[in-house]
Amino acid sequence: MEERIIIIGSNGQIGTELAIALRAKFGGKQVITSDIRDPQIPDSSGPFETIDVLDKQSLRLLFTKYRPTQVYLLAAMLSATGEKYPRQAWDLNINGLLNVLDLSLEYNVNKVFWPSSIAVFGPHSATVNTPQYAIMDPNTVYGISKLAGERICEYYHGRYGLDVRSIRYPGIISWKAAPGGGTTDYAIHIFHEALKNNTYSCFLSADTALPMLYMDDAIRGTLALMDAPADALHIRSSYNLTGISFTPAMLADEIGKILPGFTMTYEENDPRQAIADTWPDSVDDTEARKDWGWEPQFTLADITSDMITNLNKIHN
Ligand code: AKB
């Protein structure tokens, strides 16, 4: 069967690279990118539509025009920006999801992908190797919206049979497109500043461990989940997934091995610290490994050297 895939929110950090991967796999014209913003990396190999996921009428026209077999919904407001605009974060993250789930049912979409996050965990969740099923008491609007979104996805699967699939992404590190408004973004900014100034002022403390994933692994994992047979997937809320966990100090050490003399200072009282403090240090992704063969490939050393090699090409 020929796939027609719509990516909503295709111009952010993940969407940009997912579009490249999906177009390589299914053909440029089979993948319709859409966003409220212009592309970070223009790509004329397939259609692009300007769309606001909260405008259900326009979204309906998009579904009518392309009759998608698969939909990826990536439009969202992340943790740090969400704390500045809680009402808008809730609206975008929840009503955007409901619009897409409803239209996917109405238009008989075969598969829907929606990303959740480690932000679904909170101050009372286990912090080390946080299990799939843990106490979940997120206290950011982003985390609350992701947890509600997970429950809604599972509900649409159980109640209506919609084949919706999801991953709880950790921090995602990449060099092609800029991240936007997350707590884990320090792990990207650090590379740009290291190459420009050989120093970085980090908004998280030296010992704040967080689960992270390199973009190549994130894309490979997302496509593997979407390729898995439906009956192999017994989690319809969202799968825990991780690559490696590290602290800012560990990342600075690794960068210093490639860029001698690199220094790091630490800011105090950044509001993102309070968010990071409620998130897991590491997560247990056994269920993803069991159900659809998840296995990360990039170590901290691999990520560091790949980021520096690629950003060097851009900076020079
Ligand atoms: C954020 O920091 O808000 C995101 C996330 C972990 O979901 N990168």
Lay out the secondary structure.
Layout (H helix, E strand, L loop, with lengths): L4 E4 L4 H14 L4 E5 L12 E3 L5 H11 L3 E4 L5 H6 L1 H21 L4 E7 L23 H20 L3 E6 L1 E3 L12 H12 L1 E4 L7 E5 H13 L11 E2 L3 E3 L1 H11 L4 E4 L4 H6 L9 H7 L7 H16 L1
Parallel strand pairs: 1-2, 1-4, 2-3, 4-5, 5-6, 6-10, 7-9, 8-12
Antiparallel strand pairs: 9-11
The structure holds 2-amino-3-ketobutyric acid (AKB).
2-amino-3-ketobutyric acid binds next to loops.
Can you describe this structure?
- InterPro entries: Epimerase_deHydtase, NAD(P)-bd_dom_sf, NAD(P)_epim/dehydratase.
- It comes from Parapedobacter koreensis.
- Pfam families: Epimerase (PF01370).
- With 316 residues, the protein is α/β, with parallel strands linked by helices.
- Helices cover 43% and strands 16% of the residues.
- The chain has 11 helices and 12 strands.
- The chain has helices at 13-26, 56-66, 79-84, 86-106, 141-160, 186-197, 215-227, 248-258, 271-276, 286-292, 300-315, and strands at residues 5-8, 31-35, 48-50, 70-73, 111-117, 164-169, 171-173, 199-202, 210-214, 239-240, 244-246, 263-266.
- Strand 1 (5-8), helix 1 and strand 2 (31-35) form a beta-alpha-beta unit.
- Helix 6 (186-197) crosses helix 11.
- The termini are far apart.
- 2-amino-3-ketobutyric acid is lined by residues 78-79, 117-119, 142, 169-171, 182-184.
- The site of 2-amino-3-ketobutyric acid has 12 residues, from loops.
